[in-house]
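Q: Structure tokens for this one, please.
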Amino acid sequence: MTDITDDIAEEISYQSFEDDCKLLGNLLHDVLQHSVGNAIRDKLERIRVLAQSACVMRTSGIEDMADYLEKELASNLSNMTLEEASTLARAFSQFLSFMGIAETHHRLRNAQDAEKVSKSCDSTFNQLLQSGVSPDELYDAVCKQEVEIVLTAHPTQINRRTLQYKHIRLAHLLEYNNRPNLGREDREMLIEDLVREITSIWQTDELRRHKPTPVDEARAGLNIVEQSLWKAVPQYLRRVSNALKKHTGKPLPLTCTPVTFGSWMGGDRDGNPNVTARVTKDVSLLSRWMAIDLYIREVDHLRFELSVNKCTDRLSKMAHEILAKEALSENGNGSWNQQVNWSQAKHQNQYNSALPRQLPAGAHIPPCTECKDVTEYPRLELPGTEYMPLNREDGKASPSQDSFKGLTVTTENLNTTNSGSPQTTPRAGSGPLSAQRKLFAESQTGKTSFHKLLEPSLSQRPGIAPYRIILGDVKEKLVRTRTRLELQLDNSPIEQDPCDFYETSSQLLEPLLLCYDSLQSCGSGVIADGRLSDLIRRVATFGMGLMKLDLRQESGRHAETLDAITKYLDMGKYSEWDEGKKLEFLTRELKGKRPLVPPSIEVPPDVKEVLETFRIAAILGQDSLGAYVISMASNASDVLAVELLQKDTRLAVAGELGRPCPSGTLRVVPLFETVTDLRGAGSVIRELLSIDWYREHIIKNHNGHQEVMVGYSDSGKDAGRFTAAWELYKAQENVVAACKEYGIKVTLFHGRGGSIGRGGGPTHLAIQSQPPGSVMGTLRTTEQGEMVQAKFGLPETAIRQLEIYTTAVLLATLRPPQPPKEEKWRTLMDKISEISCSTYRNTVYENPEFITYFQEATPQAELGNLNIGSRPTRRKSAGGIGHLRAIPWIFAWTQTRFVLPAWLGVGSGLKGVCEAGHTDELRAIYKEWPFFQSTIDLIEMVLGKADIPIAKHYDDVLVSESRRELGVELRKELSTTENYVLQVTGHEKLSENNKSLRKLIESRLPFLNPLNMLQVEILKRLRNDNNNSKLRDALLITINGIAAGMRNTG
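A: Here is the predicted structure, written as tokens:
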């Protein structure tokens, strides 16, 4: 039922899926009997049976009986009390979530055999070699591949994080249930565990009561890394390496990272006033803190495992140097010229840094089983989480907390033993001053007497363990690095020798690679290729910050900032200049060596915030930040304006620091979103590259690489899905051509959402249908909202998704898809697009009744109460579709099962071309052109989810009689679209080429249809009693349930 189904596996074992659904349904049935009683439970069962009967009648073509049963169903729902309605909404919503969990579980079961599953590295590499690609060409393409997956905080994840974790537990239990050797007692215990989880879910409030802050959203992204990606990345890279070695004879280089990760969480300020410069700084530091904390845990495991004595002379020398340094520290910071008793130093000090005092958590679990470990809940140990340890005798959560400005930090995360285990401390002695004293004390003294009591006597100590000594030193540096970040978060003064902490990933990699090379040289390669190689690959992939943070701001905000500057300098108003004058001014200032903005300038708060953002960017630099994305970009001056503000701020900050700013300038990425801007994208890039300063800047500072982002959401809302898809295709062709003219490489950044209406759909299909030459080994793409959890929430799904990205980009690079064979194909696409766009805009923007119809027929106005995102639903307070964000636009229509934005206009476009006698040509284009085929297939997938009777029910009950005719016309357009899509594809029924999807849709309807009808009834009541909080809660529960049933939101 989800838009990503064929990314994981084409088919599932439907019988096994049904068995699991039946098991979960029966257990939920028992929980309901215990929780709400037999009477309400039986009433819910009658509703389900009635809905299922109606579905059977409609599927069988007995429309009159189906209509009668649905009217009876609506009548029963309208007679329910509010308490009964809320219980039904919760029960059916929970079961739809359980069905989604079971579906994902069974898709993963089918994907476990990596050699047999489609789109795996093994099968794709073999396919390419069979098609004539040489082993060397294949090897180079994989090693040079650069894919960056950017996680965003777009408000489409409807489940609370608490419920997401409980759902993960259910998924693990289903996996356990499939073990063939499960005995009777084990199965009984499993059922008890399932009942406990389902009871816990039932008794948990499914609604968010407060809006998340941008920092909360960033924590959610970091949790995805910790609970899934951290485990998945090494396993994924092993698959790539093993497949490469099998087919080319060479493994993947240890520090090669075909896939990395970025984030917009805490950096996307486009239309979100809650994302400030301070938030960006805090989120960046928090991400670095989390990375260091995860590395500390891994080093603990390695220190336990690497008990090997044999090493190279180079590693032995480094180990003895560390021991000598520790001996001097123990003796009161003596001079390095003092004589050192090597025997005494070896025996007295190696244990301090080398040997863990206790086994690290999970030391009994082999690394290969980490992705399947179900023994623990995900660890949530980072500053500012909601987790509160029990550390009082009465068992209540301790309130002891330190408060970083902008972050709430539990002290249990700031005070650790050498093993990295969290230890809570009282408030006394906490705070910036005590933390600074602690840092100073740790650097100046040896171990305390208490610590020495924990150590074994000299006679019990083993001989020198060189790897443990090296890793002990690595851990000490990591701990100091983590403490330093905590002080930075607290804005405390820091005086620390750069040698005492890690600043870059290359510094951390150096001792790890030294250990790896030593093990390989000494015949212990099998050990080196275990947990150590996994850690090295994690460092190469995640760096020192897990995910580099992009900054995003709307182009108009930069123009306002330059307005304030030019006005202050008596130069006029920048925004009133023509494009030529803007470019002349910007180019002149970029070539200059003096700052443009005077330190004494006074500007409005909005402008000050923009300038402060550039200041934070200059301080953090490329090690923490990724790209600066300009939304609503339309001219070359939009890019140069950001380059100038960036350059000017860096000059000012360098002057204050007395040294150059850290690392290089950020990449500046124009985001073309509207149809007009997409059509001009190639010209804008061409004009930019024609400017000598800019072209030289790209070559010198960005390795001759231009990045361009294309937006799927706003283009779809602007012109409809078909026109947006075609304009995006042509825009990419034009951008690639413009860069090629100037010898500049290009990386296209795809701003895709989760739903089809916002450019979503199967990853492999989307990449394989891009224009030839647009994916040349590099790709950036967003993963948003509920898609982040769906694709990367479990290690197993994450591994498959990463593999799919790698193989899809590899195929698009080495065997790019075919362009249109004939120019006539383009002419037909233009004609379809023209008619489609006209129909769409005439309905959405030109019909004065549409906006009111939209507000009446959907729960759009009520979506803001979901508290699923930190940003407002509108960019500006003005009404109309234009200022409404794309997510609530899609979300609202998905709730009513009309899914209008994904298909409106398509039917008219196809009809116009078919009636002109081009039906056979369209069928040929569908079979031979991947882009057109994927576009039509995705529209067909959406049509399979749409439901005309349900959409009509919303209109009949909620829409004013004077506007119902508009609904009739729209439903006719939907039928027209279905008819002509089937004509073009040659299918007899929708989703005929995806029977698994159709069967899954049908299995959900007995629960989904009553939820839609109940939502209509609650909306009707709520609009007559707007202040009824219980009605509002009931409505939000139906929204959650329908989103679970549709498997996406916006």
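A few notes: The chain has a mean pLDDT of 82. The longest strand covers residues 146-152.
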